[in-house]
Amino acid sequence: MKIKILSTSDVHGYLYPTNYSTPDNVTDYGMLKAATIINRLKTTAADDEVVIAIENGDWLQGSPLTSYVAKKMPPADQRIMTEITARMAMDAGILGNHEFNYGLDYLRAGESGRNYPILGANILGGKDQHIVDAPYQIIDQQGVKIAILGLTTAYVPVWERADHLTGLTFESALTTAKRWVPKLRELADVVVVAYHGGFEGDLAADELAEPLTIENEGLRILNQVPGIDALVTGHQHQQLASVVHGVPVTQPGDRGRFVGCIDLELAEDKTVVTATASLLSTATAAPAVNLISLTGHLQARVQEWLDQPLGRVNGVEMTVENPFLARLSGHPYLDFINRVQMAATGTDIAATALFNDEVRGYQSTVTIRQVLNSYVYPNTLVVEEISGTELRAALERCASYFERRDGQVTVGDAFIHPKVQHYNYDFYSGIDYTFDLRLPVGSRVDQLDYHGQPVEEDQLLQVAMNQYRGNGGGEYPMFGVDKVVREVNLDMSELITDYFTTHDPVIAKQPTNFHVITGK
Description:
This is Bifunctional metallophosphatase/5'-nucleotidase. The chain is α/β, with parallel strands linked by helices. The protein contains 14 helices and 32 strands.
């Protein structure tokens, strides 16, 4: 008997093979391509083979298409996303952290189109809130019982707005796995853990390499929870396929670039005798025809919506040609985002990030497409009152983003491995500050002035930031909900749109408040 465990994860609503940068952009990824591979493997399964498919989270949010579904479609039609995965014959779904970004009402509406269970053993209260069906599922096929335990990164409350998590508590995935896996071993022949979370270190070396939190607990699960036959992971967007301590592990990247594939061969007594893990590239797969017929009209409406003009930009160029240089020197686009945040919150200090290297900023005529492709998260804003000491500590965290290596300035390893985290480096407006990269990490803030005067340690300052950072996300413990003095509960894409309504044209300028001493 053979069992094949297929998985998608972190597709983030990239259904069609496009990144939406232009109306005619074509890429080599997308859920439609993954669907073709999953369908082929399911329909061509051998007589002695069971094929199951798991959607492992971060599916409902993250692309311009999902923004359209969330903002422009009525709740009754928002089920389209799980109608897609239902037609892919998924056997189980897991909630990712980004599933909560639009709140529980949207999550419930989005889930309503499915014909498979949502599993969430460590989301306490999930069943009462009607977003989780069960902690686990047992699939009984061809005389073999396969248990799937569902887990979600327990760090969700660190990032997410409290009103998006009403009635929910997130337990450590490790703690939950320790409780449930022994029970499932008694109920099933094969135990699969599907975890929307990743690894807190180097999987190949089996070594912990980052601060131990409950965000990523994959290595500890492998090392401390016996009885797991297969581990499906996600969240970090890594491309992983390996066997660790005899347990096959997959993590299929993001945007449907790969389908995770774990193959188990069972002996007559139904114990696993061989296990392998691989990633199946979707690059050459044709998009699934049945899903095109289901969603083609939606894709056309999204493309038309994205090209609606919002306003104009005069002054210097606001396009981002070199993302690293934009972070190293400041950039008109980052200055603009901070201006929007300050206008919305009534502050004169703000921080924002260039989230990834695909951000291209704005052309002279700004469209919805440019806004959504540049600000990819549905963040709302908070204003936090912090001390000068806390502001300096936040800037030191930012300064650690840079590293001097072989006479060149590059990105520090901690912001690249195990997951690329450009979104955890912030650019500030409203203060004048300097990083000296010749100094050790933790002591690099060489200048910090506010209104032309040095910032004092006990001076209180109000700073606008998105709610992810305001909750301390990205290893910023100096921020937190206890520091929040006010909130703006409109997401940034709406605030940017509103800003263009009242400031047209926007005058772009190169910021001059930030400097880096590289030591060259």
